[in-house]
Design goal:
By secondary structure, the protein is an alpha/beta fold. It contains 17 helices and 22 strands. Strands 16-17-15-14-20-21-22 form a seven-stranded mixed beta sheet. The chain has a five-stranded mixed beta sheet with strand order 3-2-1-5-13. A two-stranded antiparallel ribbon has the order 4-7. A hairpin with a 3-residue loop joins strand 14 and strand 15. The longest helix is centred in the last third of the chain and has 25 residues.
């Protein structure tokens, strides 16, 4: 049996899948690795952990493939010396140390010009500010850099010896001219970063690779107008394909290259979606199953009679671009129990996703339905809440293998099994269930969204610096 293999180098582990050319699952495997937080707001990993976990996951599949498609966490910085050796732990997408460097980048290039070129404003998670931080704080490491790479492409280097990157993942570096799908000489010169450090860039379908969100969108069939990808993972994402490059002038949503040639995407990202529920359980309900928590939340009606949750536990990207934003529960009363708090948390994440959807609509996106994925999508209650807040039916696909599934489809395109990404989607992606919005909740969620929108500016002035 011919197998298409995809590997996702995620934040918590490496996941490998093998599928048939018809989209049937043959095998899957997952290997975890640790996350290091050496200081408050820092987030790092050892690239060797990615490689060892990837080796184990691929070996566990027990299949042979001519090519492994790759997806992975975006924005992470891996620094290599002239011999290809890792110089320090990788700085990840959710690291928040580079606020000063972000301000420096926007001052050097100008916010309007930066967003026009890269599709994005300077945010702490992106790759470019990390390089400037190293130059300022670890000059000995910076002086030894000869190449940089992103997480999944470090695994590619170890797997095949190829130093390369795709346009989708490169879009998240803040060093890329997204409209023209190539490195931006203007940005590199303004930031004094050598072009020789950057890997050759190819289309995702040529090199069988993409950032995790673009691969996930491909894996659920979000490749054209009318559909958006709604991801309830550690972070939350609403992603819409674009036939032409477009960007929000204020950089409140990301503009990246999609995994298909001549296709772009606009994407809103909240840093804590399912990660909020993980935090709640770890902090306030250790040992309690997620299903038990959501069952307690289901007892409460829409709006839970007042509580509102802001999911800004690690700062936020969309719509506020504020690394100093903080989470909150408000509107609590004596009769509220743990279930009410969980209900408010699930709804708060839904409101955050709606922030992204509203901004995408401002770019001309029209959506008839969303395709849901991520760990949070295993909760029927949460899906119904999000569908009701967004006002969109949410569709679930047959396989829930996420970014790794999309990476396997890219491997099939690169190997000639499919003529292009759309043929791969037509052959392999099937909808198994649709969750409709609950009309009885609509009024409560319109009121709740208005409260949610008012909370950030109200609390911003009183938060502890």
């Amino acid at each position: 049996m011919r197998a298409l293999v995809g590997l996702d180098v995620g934040t918590t582990g490496a996941k490998a899948v093998a599928i048939t050319p018809e989209g049937e699952l043959i095998a899957s495997a997952e290997e975890s690795y640790p996350l290091s937080t050496p200081q408050a707001g820092w987030s790092e990993q050892d690239p060797e952990d990615w490689w060892r976990a990837s080796e184990r996951a691929l070996a566990t599949l027990g299949v042979e493939a001519t090519r492994v498609g790759l997806s992975g966490q975006m924005h992470g910085l891996v620094c290599l010396d002239g011999e290809g050796r890792v110089l320090r732990p990788a700085i990840l997408w959710n690291d928040q140390r580079t606020g000063e460097e972000c301000r420096e980048i926007e001052a050097r290039i100008g916010l309007e010009r930066l967003v026009s070129l890269t599709g994005n404003r300077a945010l702490p998670g992106f790759t470019a500010p990390k390089l400037l931080w190293l130059r300022r704080h670890e000059p000995d490491v910076y002086a030894r850099i000869r190449r940089i790479t992103l997480p999944k492409d470090y695994v590619r280097l170890r797997l095949s010896g190829e130093w390369a990157i795709d346009v989708a993942d490169a879009s998240g570096t803040l060093l890329f001219d997204v409209a023209h799908r190539d490195w931006s000489n203007e940005v590199l010169e303004a930031l004094d970063i050598p072009a020789s450090w950057l890997p050759p860039v190819s289309e995702s379908t040529e090199i069988a690779g993409a950032g995790d969100q673009q691969a996930a969108a491909l894996g659920v069939g979000v490749v054209g107008p009318g559909l958006v990808s709604v991801v309830l993972g550690t972070s939350g994402v609403v992603l819409a394909p674009l036939a032409e490059y477009a960007h929000d002038p204020l950089g409140r949503v990301h503009a990246f290259c999609h995994a298909l040639p001549a296709t772009w995407e606009a994407m809103g990202v909240m840093l804590n979606a399912a990660g909020s529920l993980q935090w709640f359980r770890d902090t306030l309900a250790p040992g309690v199953a997620f299903d038990e928590l959501t069952a307690e939340a289901e007892v409460w009606s829409a709006g839970a009679d007042g509580p509102t949750f802001l999911p800004y536990l690690q700062g936020e990207r969309t719509p506020h671009a504020d690394p100093d934003a903080r989470g909150a529960f408000t509107g609590l009363a004596r009769h509220h129990d743990r279930g009410a708090l969980v209900r408010a948390l699930l709804e708060g994440v839904g409101y955050g996703l709606r922030d992204s959807l509203e901004l995408l609509r401002g770019l001309g996106v029209t959506a008839a339905a969303g395709r849901a994925s991520g760990g949070g999508a295993r909760s029927r209650l949460w899906l119904e809440i999000v569908a009701s807040i967004l006002g969109l039916p949410l569709e679930l696909t047959t396989l829930e293998e996420g970014s790794a599934f999309g990476a396997a489809l890219l491997a099939g395109v690169a190997d000639g099994v499919f003529a292009d990404g759309r043929e791969a989607v037509a052959a392999c992606v099937r909808v198994r269930e649709t969750i409709e919005p609950n009309a009885r909740w609509a009024e409560a969620y319109e009121e709740g969204y208005a409260r949610f929108r008012a909370l950030y500016p109200a609390l911003r002035g009183v938060e502890t610096p």
